[in-house]
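Appendix B.2, paired examples.
Example (i):
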Amino acid sequence: MPERVQTRDDVRPAVEGGSQSGSEEVGSHAPAHRGRGAPAIHPAVSQAFDALKGSNVQWCLLRGESDLASPNGDVDLLVARGDMPRLRAALRRLGFAPLRAWGRAPHCFFVAYHEATARRIKLDVVTQLAYGPYQELQTDAAAGCLARRRYVGALPLLSPDDAFWTLLLHCMLDRQAFSAAHRERLLELVGRADCNGELANVAGAAFAERSEAAIVLELVRAQDWEALTRIAQDASAHLTHRRPRFVRRLRVLAIRALRRAANFLPYRVASR
């Protein structure tokens, strides 16, 4: 059966109205609770999590557990690389459609529309922890983070140390900014952060010498977000200049071209 061609503007209507035919029904009205102490979770998100567990996918939530009942942005997941085929199959059965992610590796996106709550649910799945506007800092920390994950009820989360450093690197290298919610979460986690752990070493290597992990921890405790933003800018420049200039330029141009193409070329959803 040939593929059905859609434009970018057609993606949401297709998810809303037609992509779930032949699939399991996604969710109900009420947020689900996944055990004692676990946060409330939107029914469509909860069903996706149950599907991953049922498919023996090794995964954990990267951040945003307090927003799961009514997610306004992406739901960020870390998944073992070898488990992606099972994840794709499990989400497809629930009606989650994959979105084109050209130029955004290692990110993969899946979207579904939940009619009962009139909400579009988007999962942002990564198999590698990489940071920067163009993923300039690529790490090998994913396997260790998954091995160290902990459970709150039935919900798998990063360890507090890993949660602190992944969020800090996200704020500093991806955003170069600290939202109020991220500041609050960093302050909750900083007391359990280790300046000698795997991700602390990654951060220390990314930042300038005067901004080693221990210094960054002290700045978070002092809530000196301006100093941290300056360090983030220095770190971004440091990462950018690790490659020859022409290689950097070609890489950025290629990624930008792929991202534009992903937005404007006709969108194809494989037939089920």
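Example (ii):
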Amino acid sequence: MQRENLAISVQGLSKSLGGRQVIDDFSIDVPAGHIFGFLGPNGSGKTTTIRMLCGLLTPDAGTGQCLGYDIITESAQIKREVGYMPQRFGLYEDLSIRENLDFVARLYGMPEPKRTVEATLDRLGLAARASQLAGQLSGGWKQRLALAACLLHAPRLLLLDEPTAGVDPKARREFWDQIHDLARDGLTVLVSTHYMDEAERCHEVGYLAAGKLLVHGGVDQVVEESGLATFEVAGPELEALAAELRAQPGVDMTAAFGASLHVSGTDPALLERSIAPFRADSKYRWTETRPSLEDVFIHTLQRAGVTAS
């Protein structure tokens, strides 16, 4: 891809904090207007990585650019064009939606704060609730207000840290529809999430563990390159079945999915031979299926010898 089409391009980033290697040799390219999802266990380095990418934290080694600026020597310019939405709601609950946005607009020193606030209220569907106190909002509406606040200064890069934690499914879907609308307008988005369905809505995903980028690419690409063959089995006493299957050669992983079980391995022929006796039992219903993103990431962790937390 042409470098001028990249919002972020970094090579070999490393960072130690408190004597511990948090990020080790991280490299990535993110096209402008793309949504990039960071996944990984707690303590895997997601937040540290995002902070380095946008100039909030200086790497110990490595080089790169964000929004056309050098992440080391031009970090101040980067910060002015970044919007950050933390996991925890950080606005004033005793102020109305409009008052909160007006306060943030004045903090940014915007030349026409009232006009900007009204336009943002309309853009995020908040105009009808503009006089409502933030403390009276549901989790989904608080989330929408927080998003509005970090868009006021028209950033080119949006950072979202676990943006939908504690939000109901309908509000989560509406939030992601808004994020895709913003991306279509050219905004680049970096999001950390633990939700696999959210990760699947990103243009690309990266899986971090123990400071290393283990997996990177589009969702379909990541699943295909995992090399996993997966079968889904439904029937009675699946926990006992899983215990038996895990002892079979070629069965690398079993994982419960609702009323069924996913059985996966990287050697399809060996896997099929090992599960053949179980498939002959009529009380079970077996179907060959596509591995889920969760299957891939759990397998990646196991292969890397990393314990999820």
